[in-house]
Design goal:
This protein is mainly alpha-helical. The protein has a domain of 109 residues. Helices cover 51% and strands 4% of the residues. It contains 16 helices and 7 strands. The strands form 3 sheets. It has a 3-stranded antiparallel β-sheet with strand order 5-6-7. A two-stranded antiparallel ribbon has the order 1-2. A hairpin with a 6-residue loop joins strand 3 and strand 4. It is globular, with a radius of gyration of 20 Å. It binds beta-D-glucopyranose. The site of beta-D-glucopyranose (BGC) has 10 residues, from helix 2.
Length: 407
């Protein structure tokens, strides 16, 4: 797909990079509506619910006819996948309710597919449930600004999938599964729970477009309760007190599942609990303490002066554990919402300096590596780091959109 002439220029940041980002995003959407994660990296020639939902958020937020349409087509693709694998989801729900164990490959809805909806045949970690929460959230965001009559018409086809996901997530949310970095399948990641609470908390808004749909209304009531229960669980199990400041902050994992060096650690994916999911607003002390801790532990030099981006977590060794474009963009979005426009702009400047000459934004960059010797390891295993990473471009687009709104 190519951009058409109705696209207008962004007014902030690097206009060309913004337009090029939208172009890259749309070029990497298949006819089925799926987005591949990256065209230049074998392992990422798939579509993840997580990446796609964040991409759809950026596209809906951009508000141009072709980006709204691209977002709608992604939602349609997700709906088709959920319908296609409905029996798997129902089987998983039944197993969990019967107290039987789940096989984390054969008994669950996978997190990534080919653009035609086939689960990949490679050895992977398909049990990652955060993407379903992010999808519900992105779906609600998509219809928020659109004509309610159109929303009702289009959402009618999604009702069964939404109800099924509410049941699925309601049954599985306490089952350990791989986090958004596809690691630690034996733990409960706080950011996964934040995604679930954030997404389930928006189901009532979706149900309101379909007032006669009693099944969806019942699912919405369940989802609202679940969202509150999960949020309370995070507060009780996914927080720690900073010994220096005495403040409560969110931790990478919940409860005792995080032993040793992981105990009390933060992860930059916790930014999403504030924005986009809105569990605690940016001004809330819990969000503020979490963000401060992320800056201290995961930004080189601990300062937002544009000299570095954001690491995923301090022990990350994937491609050496560099700084991620998408997380840097989300930190900027959070800082902007908290009134720190200078910090947001410094991070924006850093992101724009990471763009390759052809306008591609990579997944991560290598100036400040957590563990430099691991870069070679991963490069030999899988080749050069993914670039462009479509999710990086989407996060950059989200940041520019937010800067424009508040500009
Ligand atoms: C990241 C995932 C992402 C995938 C595709 C992985 O390296 O950890 O969050 O979904 O790449 O972009």
């Amino acid at each position: 797909m190519t951009l058409n002439s109705t696209l207008t220029s962004a007014t902030l940041g690097n206009d060309w990079l913004y337009e090029n980002s939208l172009k890259i995003i749309l070029e990497n959407q298949a006819g089925t509506g799926a987005f591949i994660a990256s065209p230049n990296f074998g392992q990422y020639h798939y579509s993840w619910f997580r990446d796609g939902a964040f991409i759809a958020l950026a596209l809906s937020d951009t508000g141009r006819p072709e980006t709204i349409e691209a977002s709608r087509r992604f939602h349609e693709w997700v709906n088709n996948i959920i319908q296609r694998y409905r029996p798997l989801a129902q089987g998983a729900i039944a197993r969990v309710k019967a107290g039987e164990p789940l096989n984390p490959v054969t008994d669950i809805l996978h997190c990534r597919y080919t653009v035609d909806g086939e689960p990949s045949q490679e050895d992977w970690t398909p049990f990652q449930i955060d993407g379903f929460g992010t999808w519900l959230f992105a779906l609600a965001e998509h219809y928020k600004g659109l004509d309610p009559a159109m929303a009702s018409r289009e959402l009618a086809q999604f009702s069964d999938s939404i109800c099924l996901l509410v049941d699925y997530l309601g049954a599985l949310w306490l089952v350990p599964n791989f986090d958004c970095w596809e690691e630690h399948g034996d733990k409960l990641a706080t950011s996964t729970l934040a995604a679930l609470s954030g997404g389930l908390g928006r189901v009532a808004e979706l149900a309101a477009y379909l007032p006669g749909d009693t099944a969806l209304a019942a699912a919405a009531a369940t989802a609202t309760n679940l969202a509150a229960e999960i949020k309370a669980y995070i507060l009780n199990h996914g927080t720690a007190t900073d010994p220096q400041t005495g403040q409560l902050y969110l931790t990478k994992f919940c409860g005792d599942s995080a032993a040793g060096e992981l105990r009390g650690a933060v992860d930059a994916n916790l930014l999403w609990a504030a924005i986009p999911y809105g569990l605690w607003p940016v001004e809330h002390p819990l969000s503020q303490a979490t963000v401060e801790r992320i800056i201290k532990d995961l930004v080189a030099g601990g300062k937002l002066d544009g000299s570095g981006g954001v690491h995923r977590y301090s022990r990350d060794t994937y491609f050496g554990g560099g700084e991620w474009i998408l997380l840097t963009a989300w930190l900027a979005v959070v800082r902007l919402a908290g009134g720190d426009r200078a910090g947001a702009n410094a991070l924006l400047g850093w992101i724009e300096r990471q763009a390759q000459p052809d306008g591609s934004l990579p997944e991560q960059t290598f100036e400040h590596l957590n563990q430099p010797d691991m870069l070679n390891h991963w490069t030999q295993l899988w080749g050069e780091v993914a670039s462009p990473l479509v999710w990086s471009h989407a996060s950059y687009v989200t940041l520019i959109n937010r800067l424009k709104i508040t500009g």
